[in-house]
Amino acid sequence: MFEIIDMDLKGIISIPYLKIEANKLTVILGPSGCGKTSLLKLLNKLISPDSGDIYYCGKNLKDINSLELRKEVVMLSQNSPLFPESIKDNLKAALNYHMLPIPENFELREILKQVGINKDLDDKVLFLSGGEKSRVALARVLVLDPQVYLLDEPGASLDEKTEIFITEMLKDICQKKGKTMVMVTHSKEIARKYGDVIIDLKEYSRG
Amino acid sequence: MQELIKLNIIQLSLAYLFPLLLFVILKKRGLKREWELLLATFRMTVQLVLAGYILVYIFAKATLGLTLLSFFIMEIFAVLTVIRKFQKDQMPKGMKRTVAFAIFTGTFLSLIYFVFVVIGVQPWYEPRYLIPLAGMIVGNSMTGVALALRLLLDGMKKNRVVVEEILILGGSPKEAAKEVVNSAFEAAIMPTITSMMSAGIVILPGMMTGQILAGASPLVAISYQLAIMLAILGSVALSVIIMLSLGYRLYFNSEVQLKK
Ligand SMILES: Nc1ncnc2c1ncn2[C@@H]1O[C@H](COP(=O)(O)OP(=O)(O)OP(=O)(O)O)[C@@H](O)[C@H]1O
Ligand SMILES: [Mg+2]
Fold first, then answer.
1. What residues of chain A, 38 to 57, have a C-beta less than 8 Å from chain B?
2. Cβ atoms of A181 and A170 closer than 8 Å
3. ω into residue A103 within 30 of 0, thus cis?
4. Residue B126's pLDDT band (boundaries 50, 70, 90)?
5. Is the same domain home to B181 and B107?
6. What is the per-residue pLDDT across B7-48, written as a single tens digit (0 to 9) for each?
7. How far apart are CA A100 and CA A103, in angstroms?
């Protein structure tokens, strides 16, 4: 799905060659500051490398329109900020940016259930707990149903049990719907148990 | 019409009692503003006296060239005043040019409309009309653009994470900057709207006061005041919207990424 060739991001990471396979859950490990977030941002063109090339489905990212790319390759950012409105407004905003129709409420509720949130669509996100907020952010990405998921520590603010629940749900989507996922995590256990491929970014880090 | 009472030098000097009074108060309270007050009083006096003589000259000549020249000088001063206010700020490349373009275009279009369509004075460049009107329009646009720019710079800085999040979610630069741009626009036109709200009740606007003092009928004075306030509103809104809708783009590159 992605191929990285001779890529260098000044002083952060340098990757001679790396392939990220389609329809698999690739897990990115590595110490804080080693460039995991930067790698994800490179993959959806939120930043560009200083040199070298990244290919998506055989096409050079340089030749792909950023907005088009981000419709297919969707990123859940680290500590993703929510818009200070209702849960539904947050899901709607993402759908609007992707110019997708707004599904019926029961479909949206289904997605909330998937991330283990037992709240009303009209509840304000301001009053949610930290872990709930992070899962609304995940729901905001799931509702887009993209081909590729870039997930930056989706389990960061969750307890162990919830993190496993979320990871299993993601793995399930990956397998049943044939999606490609690149997930950053700090948990070696999660990586070992769920990752089809594990990349330790430390070896590419220039930090 | 009653003749205007001309102030002689002694009468005018008596008015300087006010800044003198303030000077004494500042001094007594140990507030460090007294030199600023003196400088401001001095500058105002010199600038206005000079402006008076220059205007007498320009009005007497009443040529197109001189009128346009004064207009351009006003524009340049307005642009420089705004830019100087932001010397210490980090601005994206191209912002100064954008400010200049916005002030110039916004004021020019409103002034042209006002002079040709609304008052239709003959000849159109009659400096007695054009210069005071231009001064008011340019001055207000300048304040509006400065306010909007302050809010744009601060807003893009403070909301950087949210702006980037919208890009991450597939939004366009326009969508990402929308919130910041909208609140800057609102805040920048609010002073003008507020002054419209209070016009004639709380204060008699400066131009109207001047005309009435000069012996014009209050009805003539208000018709001019109405027209000029609407022109100011148009000019401020136009300059601000031009500045904002070009300015936010400077934060993004052609790859739809937020610049560093
Ligand atoms: N825009 C940027 N400009 C300069 N340096 C940056 C930029 N973004 C990130 N960095 C630096 O690159 C390094 C890697 O950052 P990155 O966010 O990718 O780390 P990470 O592996 O995701 O860390 P963490 O696990 O703490 O989230 C850090 O040292 C960071 O300071
Ligand atoms: Mg990170």
1. 44-48
2. yes
3. no
4. confident
5. yes
6. 788 888 888 999 899 989 988 888 888 888 889 999 999 999
7. 9
Q: Is the pLDDT of residue B2 over 60?
A: no
Task: Measure in Å the smallest separation between the Cα of B158 and chain A Cα atoms.
Answer: 13
Q: Closest residue (by CA) to atom 29 of ligand 1? A: A33
CA distance B159 to B180: 8
Of B164, B165, B172, the CB nearest to A67: B172
ipTM reported for the complex, 2 dp: 0.93
Which sign does the torsion angle of CA A49, A53, A54, A60 carry?
A: positive
CATH topology of domain A23-50+69-204: Rossmann fold (3.40.50)
B109 and B233 in a single domain? The answer is yes
Rounded to whole angstroms, the Cα distance separating B69 from B130 reads 12
Which candidate in A63, A66, A136 is best for mutational testing of the B interface (most B CBs within 10 A)? A66
Domain-by-domain residue ranges, chain A?
23-50+69-204
B160-168 and B173-198 are packed helices; what angle lies between their axes, rounded to 10 degrees? 130
Residue B182 lies in a domain: yes
